[in-house]
Amino acid sequence: VQLQASGGGLVQAGDSLRLSCAASGRTFSSYVMGWFRQAPGKERESVGSISRSGGSILYADSAKGRFTISRDNAKNTVYLQMVSLKPEDTAVYYCAARGSSFPRMRAIEYDYWGQGTLVTVSS
Length: 123
What we know:
123 residues, mainly beta, 4-stranded antiparallel β-sheet, 50% strand
């Protein structure tokens, strides 16, 4: 599966932003999808993961209450809605896919990665 993330940009603290990740290739609904981010000088960290049906979603502590992951299997797209953005949310955001049933938070468990989209939050 090929993944293409989009929607990043420069926003101000407190703003909202929605990232999209479009998938092509094999059946999108057969993949668990994850969102990760990597800030400058830091390791890649998980944002969250969504099951194949969308019925089960895991969030990192840093994302709980402000970020929402959803998917539209008919459109082969997974979304990351972010609200109340903070400067510390500045990072390159990546979507990833794993060919299994259960959401997971570790990057090593994902098989396919998109190219990333940069989100910059100014104070």
